[in-house]
Amino acid sequence: MDFLGFLLSIVVLFLSSILTKLLHKLWWEPIRVQRAMASQGIRGPPYKFIHGCTKEISKLKKDVVMKTNEPMTNVSHEILPIVEPHIQKWNKIYGGIYLHWYGPQAFLFISDTELVKEGIKKILGDGLRATEGKKWVRQRRLAHLASHGESLKGMIPATVDSVHTLLERWQKLEAKEVELFKEFATITSDAIHYAVFGIIEKRKENVKTGEMDDYGNDFLGSLLKAYHDPDKSKRITIDDLVDECKTFYFAGQETTNSTPTWTLFLLAIHKDWQEEARKEVTDVFGNEDPNHEGIMKLKTVCLCGLLSSCFVHRSCTLIFRIFNESLRLYPPATGIIRKVKRQVTLGNLVLPSGIALHIPILTIHHDPRIWGNDSHLFKPERFAEGITEATNNDAAAFLPFGLGPRSCVGLNFTMTEAKIALAMILQRYSFTLSPDYVHLLTQILTIRPQHGFKVILHPL
């Protein structure tokens, strides 16, 4: 009996411990954060036990789907109410800074660009480098090498071949509808697979036999060099190599697919800009396939520097004005989320550990205080003098690929592939939006059309 009593006590203590931990995570900790922020004047939708705000978010999104299920004769680019109806609602109620919840996790929403820049420096910058250490720095260096210089130059022929395969398939579909989102996914997958990764076993064998004295300069080559690096402090493990390949493949495919899709979507609607873009492509490439020299002519400088250190300070080509405006209206991601691992000061606020910073890219990109009352209109001329002039020298006003050390390392890869695909399509086709298109968007890693995006091709 004593043994059974002892065993029962152990079970009770064990269950009590689990219950205490659950209550701490699901109630005490959220209430602590909510009170800490409320004492500083930060409001927001109140925390609901276990689910936070997720029920409200789900309901608002379902309401949007119910209302938006018919073909549209006049497509609006005011997409925040469609993609993030909860954010639009809370923006109106609580303003540009507030607390909201996904389950028991608290998120501090900040759309003030000065606070965004401070948050990037303090939370997304040096603090994360210090906590994540050498591994992060090494991974960043590898990805950077893979998406610049010779690596990008080496991917151009493979991307051109992939687009040729696509265009050959389209020849059988002239005057018919084409589902562009799925079509671009094929190009992206092929380009990443063949141009960026290459064939690992073949390279290793070529190095062994002396046919090659190096592993190459693309992403895979950089990884293989790091795997065999004589300096152990710089060497990566086989697990690191596999993880990096997975990350680059899946993240790269989503981001790279999104950019040309929405650019073609906008040009299908705005035929005047489509014609202007075609003229520029013809001036640069004629009827020839895109090459490295021509692509460089369409190139502007880096978009992803830390704050203003690598910001665009010169005029953009017409193609890049169109791409920039496309990325502003339809950014690949709607926001940046980073968790605060220790107490930090942001402006006049003291953020408790455990809270997450929510930088709302989509909200900022459509903010009329930054972009004017025509912020929901497609106007590539905003970027005629570069991003600096378009944003009034506000580095945090345009964040399609993030900002600072956590910005998207695949930016150059994405833009190079997008330019190649756009140029080759413009050389051969004009295109219009399908009359059956429904402008209902969803977010699955990136913003995408929920019912697909069909265009009607007209061969030139």
From TrEMBL:
Heme binds at residue 408. Keywords: Heme, Iron, Membrane, Metal-binding, Monooxygenase, Oxidoreductase, Transmembrane, Transmembrane helix. One of its GO terms (molecular function) is iron ion binding. Gene3D superfamilies: Cytochrome P450. Its cofactor is heme. PROSITE patterns: CYTOCHROME_P450, EF_HAND_1. InterPro entries: Cyt_P450, Cyt_P450_CS, Cyt_P450_E_grp-I, Cyt_P450_sf, Cytochrome_P450_Monooxygen, EF_Hand_1_Ca_BS. It is found in: Membrane. The keyword Iron applies. SUPFAM superfamilies: Cytochrome P450. It is a single-pass membrane protein. One of its GO terms (cellular component) is membrane. Belongs to the cytochrome P450 family. This is Cytochrome P450. It comes from Eucalyptus grandis.
